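User: Sequence for Lactate dehydrogenase below. Tokens please.
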Amino acid sequence: MRVIAYNILGPEKEYLAIANAKVHDLTLVTNELNFSTMHYALGKEAVIISERDILDRVMLAELSRIGVKSIVTRSSTTEHIDLDFAGELKMHVANVPFETSLEDIAKRTIQNLTQWMVGGCAGDACQCKMDCANKMKFG
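Assistant: Structure tokens for Lactate dehydrogenase:
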């Protein structure tokens, strides 16, 4: 998948790069996701965000408009994402429900992307609010 990760802090960069192992076309930026930085997501299928990135209806609509289909938050919480509207837009959303170390968060983030890439489900990390045949099998 073509992916951009926003709001990457120092140590996260190395962990994400190692976890990715060049499976995905992964771009890492320190910038937060907002309207001034959204252009980095052009041509990407997925965005990786942190809990500091707020994805309300307006942001989600714009991400969908430019072709983003999937969102992974590197947090256990999803309160910063309008999940219902993401579901209306048929966007996949996943979190990292149990991981606590930066290394484990990076591994789970990449695992979520890889599951979607091969047509699977993010399993217990799935936060999608849409009907999905895969979610029914794994949920």
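The longest helix spans residues 102-117.
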